[in-house]
């Protein structure tokens, strides 16, 4: 069995009279990437700060790397890396000076890995927003932390820098680092996460492995019905069929492979072309919207 790195039960956090986190349970194993998702104000930063030991919960049990992160902050601090949403670097230092100041040693490799090698002698204030974000990540991963907290690490990055960040995160995971990520980019979570939780108003509304969470939502088939046909011409399908005024048909189904086969067999038999045919399993975007509607609570 894998080591449990984070174990949270019935966590509650208050700001005065306002309870921002209302009974959250989380578990993260070693080497996993755990994505904490939710709308603005859902409570992600509050949970993250509690895990980092920066905030004392008002109730509940929190264990990070086997200890209480608030009480044993010094122990946790030495074993974790944190990339905050906003950094406050002294702008006069150069990239290389900042890296040296942060941790002793030669940072040549790490600078190259994040494509900052050619910027090592540039002052921080002269970096672009994306380069500054990569420097944040560099500082968080120097010293090879066992546990890495990434708070919206790719906000403001161009697609290439985002890909590079993902590559670095994947390398760290392959080396056994455990990662807790918050992001508003659902495709980022879908591409990186093993396990996730969606928070809504301080409560976990969806949680589980990425595979289970996606499998719990219906898949979608869509296509243009040839003009002369009505929806009643379609064969019997397992899923729900919606015929849009535009002529496009949407099928929401829990039997993607079977329904697709029925449709294709029918189309071939009658010599029909299904225009712009698409078949997709559910995306995290679908899960997120269903959860926000409060219609579905999935615990896998
Ligand atoms: P975002 O996606 O915008 O970063 P979040 O999910 O991280 O949001 P939190 O920052 O944890 O959300 O905030 C959760 C709730 O607690 C919000 O309603 C917020 O207004 C409230 N809150 C956060 N910090 C404080 C504070 N210092 N005092 C009072 N209320 C606060």
From the helix content, strand content and strand pairing, which structural class follows?
alpha/beta
Distance between the termini: 18 Å
Please provide the count of β strands. 14
Radius of gyration, CA atoms, in whole angstroms: 23 Å
Order of helices and strands: EEEHEHEHHHEHEHEEHEEEHEHE
Mean pLDDT, rounded to whole units? 88
Q: Which outline best applies?
A: globular
Question: Compounds present?
Answer: adenosine-5'-triphosphate
Return the CATH architecture of the largest domain.
3-Layer(aba) Sandwich
Largest sheet: 7 strands, mixed
The fraction of residues in strands falls at 25-35%
Number of domains: 3
Low-confidence stretches: 295-300
Number of helical regions: 10
Query: Which CATH class of the largest domain is shown?
Result: Alpha Beta
What share of the residues lie within helices?
25-40%
- What is the CATH homology-level superfamily of the largest domain? P-loop containing nucleotide triphosphate hydrolases
For this structure, the CATH topology of the largest domain is Rossmann fold
Strand order, largest beta sheet: 5-6-7-3-8-9-14
């Amino acid at each position: 069995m894998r080591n449990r790195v984070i174990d949270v039960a019935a966590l509650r956090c208050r700001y005065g009279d306002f309870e921002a986190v209302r009974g959250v349970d989380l578990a993260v194993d070693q080497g996993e990437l755990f994505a904490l998702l939710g709308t603005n104000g859902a409570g992600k930063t509050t949970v993250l700060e509690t895990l980092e030991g920066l905030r004392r919960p008002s109730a509940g049990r929190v264990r990070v790397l086997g200890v209480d992160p608030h009480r044993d902050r010094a122990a946790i601090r030495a074993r974790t890396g944190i990339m905050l949403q906003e950094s406050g670097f002294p702008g006069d230092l150069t990239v290389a000076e900042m890296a040296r100041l942060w941790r002793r040693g030669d940072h040549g490799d790490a600078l190259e890995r994040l494509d900052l090698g050619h910027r090592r002698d540039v002052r921080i204030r002269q970096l672009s927003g994306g380069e500054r974000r990569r420097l944040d990540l560099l500082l968080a991963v120097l010293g090879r932390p066992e546990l890495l907290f990434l708070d919206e690490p790719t906000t403001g990055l161009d697609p290439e820098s985002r890909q590079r960040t993902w590559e670095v995160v994947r390398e760290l995971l392959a080396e056994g680092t455990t990662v807790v990520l918050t992001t508003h980019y659902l495709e980022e979570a879908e591409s990186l996460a093993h396990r996730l939780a969606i928070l809504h108003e301080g409560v976990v509304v969806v949680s589980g492995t990425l595979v289970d969470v996606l499998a719990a939502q219906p898949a979608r088939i869509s296509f243009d019905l040839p003009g002369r046909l009505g929806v009643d011409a379609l064969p019997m399908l397992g899923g729900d069929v919606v015929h849009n005024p535009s002529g496009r048909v949407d099928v929401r189904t829990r039997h993607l492979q079977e329904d697709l086969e029925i449709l294709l067999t029918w189309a071939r038999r009658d010599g029909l072309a299904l225009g712009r045919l698409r078949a997709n399993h559910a995306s995290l975007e679908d899960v997120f919207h269903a959860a926000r509607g409060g219609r579905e609570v999935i615990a896998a």
